[in-house]
Amino acid sequence: MTRPAEPARAAGRHRPRKRLGQHFLTDQRIIDAIVQAIAPQPGQPMVEIGPGLAALTQPLVERLGRLTVIELDRDLALRLRRHAHLQVIQADVLRVDFTALAQTLCATPSTPPTRLRVVGNLPYNISTPILFHLLAHGSAIEDQHFMLQKQVVERMVAKPGGSDYGRLSVMLQWRYAMEKLLHVPPASFAPPPRVDSAVVRMLPHAQPAAVPRPMLEELVQLAFSQRRKLLHHTLGRWLDAHQYAGRFDTRRRAEEVPVQEYLDLAREAHRLIADGKDPSCAGA
Ligand code: SAM
After folding, report:
1. How far apart are CA 257 and CA 260, in angstroms?
2. Range of the domain at 247
3. CA-based, 20 to 30 A from 82: which of 20, 162, 163, 267?
4. Do residues 80 and 51 touch, judged by C-beta distance below 8 A?
5. Domain tally for the chain?
6. What is the pLDDT of residues 164-201, one digit of tens each?
C-alpha cells in the first residue's frame, strides 16, 4: 500500500475537470521517484506545467526555493497563489512564450544566462501540442521531464523499423535526446486515467541539425500519411513534382527511414525550392 499524498486529501475538495485532463497524482512512491529523476537543485530556474493540487509542486519548491507554475484552471491557480514561493501564471501553456519566460527568470546582471528546466504531469488531451509548442523554444530550455500517456512516450523514443516510429519520433528526435524513465499505472492517480502513463526525460541537443521546420513537417507528414505503402506513392510524388534528383530511396516505407535521412532530405528540398529549380516557383 502506498501512502496517500497530501493532494489526495485536497482532491476531495476539488472536483476534477475532465476537459482539463485533471488526473491528480496520489502515489507517494511515484511522486518521490519523479522528483528524484528531476533532481532539483536550490536556485535552479524551473517551470512546472499543470501543477494541479501540487503533488509535484510541493516537493519541487521545497528543494528549489522558488518555482514558476503555469495552470489554466482558475480555482487551482487561486489556491496555488497562497504559496509564498510560487510564481503562478494562470494561462494556457500553449500561449506561453518560454523563450521570453527564460529571459525574465534566468537573466540577472551578475550571472551568465542559464536555461529553464521544464517539468509536468501534462494534460494528456493536449500533450502533443505542448511538445510541439516547446520545440520552438529549445534554445531556452535545459531539460524537460514529463508524465505522458505511455503510448505517446513509446512513440517519442521509438527507433525506425517498428509501428511506434512516426511523425512524433522524427520531429522530437531531431531536437532532443529522450529516455523513458518510469512506468506509472492508472491507480497512481485520482481519478485514474483509462491509460497507462510513463515519465520521459528530454534533453535538447546542443546543436540540432539546421533544418527548416515547415519543410521537415511537410515531408514527414506526407511520408507517414500512408505508412503501409511504399514512399514512392506519397513522398515520391512530391519529390517528382519538385524535380528532385537526389539519392533519397523511396522504395521503402516511412517507418524504415532514419531521422537523419528525413533531416537531410528536408534540407535538400528546401534548397531545391530556394534555388528556384522548382517549376512551381518559377516566376513567383
Ligand atoms: N501536476 C498535477 C498532478 O500531477 O497531480 C496535475 C496534473 S493533471 C494531469 C494536468 C494539469 O494541467 C491540471 O492541473 C490541469 O488543470 C492543467 N491544465 C490543463 N490544460 C492546461 C493548459 N492548457 N495550460 C495549463 N495547464 C493546463
Report:
1. 8
2. 213-277
3. 20
4. yes
5. 2
6. 999 999 999 999 999 999 999 999 999 999 999 999 99
The reply to whether 184 falls in a domain is yes
Mind listing the pLDDT tens digit for each residue in 10-62?
545 889 999 999 999 999 999 999 999 999 999 999 999 999 999 999 999 99
Alpha helices (H) in the chain, listed in sequence order: 6-11, 28-38, 57-64, 74-80, 98-106, 127-135, 150-157, 167-175, 213-223, 235-241, 259-274
Of 26, 73, 132, best ligand 1 pocket probe by most atoms within 8 Å of the beta carbon = 73
Decide: pTM greater than 0.90.
yes
Q: State yes or no: cis peptide before 191, omega within 30 of 0.
A: yes
- Which residue, chain included where needed, has cell 532532443? 176
Whole-angstrom distance, CA of residue 35 vs CA of residue 28: 10
The protein residue whose alpha carbon is closest to atom 21 in ligand 1 is 72
57 and 178 assigned to the same domain? yes
* Nearest partner of 144 among 157, 128, 156, 131, judged by Cα: 131
Burial environment of residue 171 by CB neighbours within 10 A (0 to 12, 13 to 18, 19 or more): buried
Helix, strand, coil percent values for the chain (each to nearest 5):
45, 20, 35
Q: Which of 204, 221, 251 is the last residue before a domain boundary? A: 204
Cα(154) to ligand 1 centroid in Å equals 21
> Of 187, 204, 221, which residue constitutes the final position of a domain?
204
